[in-house]
């Protein structure tokens, strides 16, 4: 494998980890048809070159205030603005885009007061900003961890072992301090074994495993695998800004949750009430998917759209111009 491409085995490994990020290589060998040593070495190369990575973060059930923010910059200054914004741990992701907005960012704060501080003060202090438009996310319909490459057959995907539930005797509640320490340790290495994590956390391997299982089951821990978009089989991502009649929102949510190309969908308060990110195999495929979106949501009107020309930051991870992880990471825990 080289950095110029991901072959079929690489894509299958990434897809398998998207389904279960901590699956043992020995459990995956029979599913994919390669021995565990080969799988381990492949993943080491994939992650070392920044072609794919695992992110550990507090789950969607953790109380956070979320917004999608559009930013217009002075001509030629979008990259400088992104570099400054990228240092802020509350700015989870930054896309450089075509169209009306130069930057589209995902902002996540601890509460509504902090969100207001960003909207009213902090975002306007970023260099070369001409306009800020904020959409507060009221309901998250679909997130990136639910999107996969679909490199495995349905039969293969079904055979991948999911994470084990907590033991019957495990504590039902994980203390907040323990949660934060577990997430912080997994940020550094999401595939670390329970034995390795026990040495870091000062807990027995069994307690570590129970804590992780409980947090995942309760939605307070999210593990997700992302791939450098240009090297995937879905290299083109577009954002859609949609207006849907209020009475049709519930049906639109159900429809979007079932469209596999949807990477993100959120019901918002702002200029429009629905924002969707779609992945496509090519620019021409984007047109097909947009038509499909209109067909599946007959009451909706696409008011605007933008194509991602470069991902600058993704869930705290800084990416290079080719979309690969640079190794620099702004911890998502720093603002907690």
Automatic annotation (TrEMBL):
<dbReference type="InterPro" id="IPR036388">
    <property type="entry name" value="WH-like_DNA-bd_sf"/>
</dbReference>
<dbReference type="GO" id="GO:0005829">
    <property type="term" value="C:cytosol"/>
</dbReference>
<dbReference type="InterPro" id="IPR036390">
    <property type="entry name" value="WH_DNA-bd_sf"/>
</dbReference>
<dbReference type="GO" id="GO:0043565">
    <property type="term" value="F:sequence-specific DNA binding"/>
</dbReference>
<feature type="domain" description="HTH asnC-type">
    <location>
        <begin position="6"/>
        <end position="45"/>
    </location>
</feature>
<dbReference type="InterPro" id="IPR000485">
    <property type="entry name" value="AsnC-type_HTH_dom"/>
</dbReference>
<dbReference type="Pfam" id="PF13404">
    <property type="entry name" value="HTH_AsnC-type"/>
</dbReference>
<dbReference type="Pfam" id="PF13412">
    <property type="entry name" value="HTH_24"/>
</dbReference>
<protein>
    <submittedName>
        <fullName>Lrp/AsnC family transcriptional regulator</fullName>
    </submittedName>
</protein>
<dbReference type="InterPro" id="IPR011008">
    <property type="entry name" value="Dimeric_a/b-barrel"/>
</dbReference>
<dbReference type="GO" id="GO:0043200">
    <property type="term" value="P:response to amino acid"/>
</dbReference>
């Amino acid at each position: 494998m080289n950095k110029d491409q991901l072959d079929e085995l690489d894509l299958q490994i990434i897809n398998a980890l998207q389904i279960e990020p901590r699956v043992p290589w020995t459990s995956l060998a029979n599913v994919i048809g390669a021995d565990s040593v080969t799988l381990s070495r492949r993943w080491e190369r994939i992650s070392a070159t920044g072609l794919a990575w695992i992110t550990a973060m507090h789950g969607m059930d953790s109380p956070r205030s979320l917004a999608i923010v559009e930013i217009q910059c002075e001509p030629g200054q979008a990259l400088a603005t992104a570099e400054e914004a990228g240092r802020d741990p509350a700015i989870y992701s930054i896309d450089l885009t075509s169209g009306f907005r130069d930057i589209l960012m995902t902002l996540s704060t601890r509460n509504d007061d902090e969100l207001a501080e960003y909207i009213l003060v902090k975002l306007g202090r970023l260099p070369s900003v001409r306009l800020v438009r904020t959409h507060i996310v009221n309901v998250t319909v679909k997130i990136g961890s639910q999107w996969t490459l679909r490199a495995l057959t349905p039969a293969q995907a079904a055979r991948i072992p999911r994470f084990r539930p907590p033991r019957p005797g495990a504590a039902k509640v994980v203390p907040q301090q323990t949660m934060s320490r577990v997430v912080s340790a997994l940020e550094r290495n999401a595939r670390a074994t329970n034995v390795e994590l026990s040495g870091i956390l000062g807990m027995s391997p069994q307690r570590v495993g129970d804590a992780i299982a409980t947090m995942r089951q309760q939605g307070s821990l999210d593990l997700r695998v992302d791939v450098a978009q240009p090297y995937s089989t879905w290299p083109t991502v577009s954002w859609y800004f949609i207006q849907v009649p209020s009475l049709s929102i519930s049906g639109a949510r159900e429809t979007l949750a079932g469209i596999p190309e949807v990477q993100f969908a959120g019901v918002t308060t702002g200029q429009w009430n629905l924002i969707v990110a779609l992945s496509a195999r090519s620019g021409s495929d984007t047109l097909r998917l947009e038509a499909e979106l209109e067909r599946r949501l007959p009451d909706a009107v696409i008011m605007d759209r933008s194509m991602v020309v470069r991902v600058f930051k993704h869930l705290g991870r800084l990416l290079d111009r080719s979309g690969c992880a640079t190794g620099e990471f702004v911890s998502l825990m720093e603002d907690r």
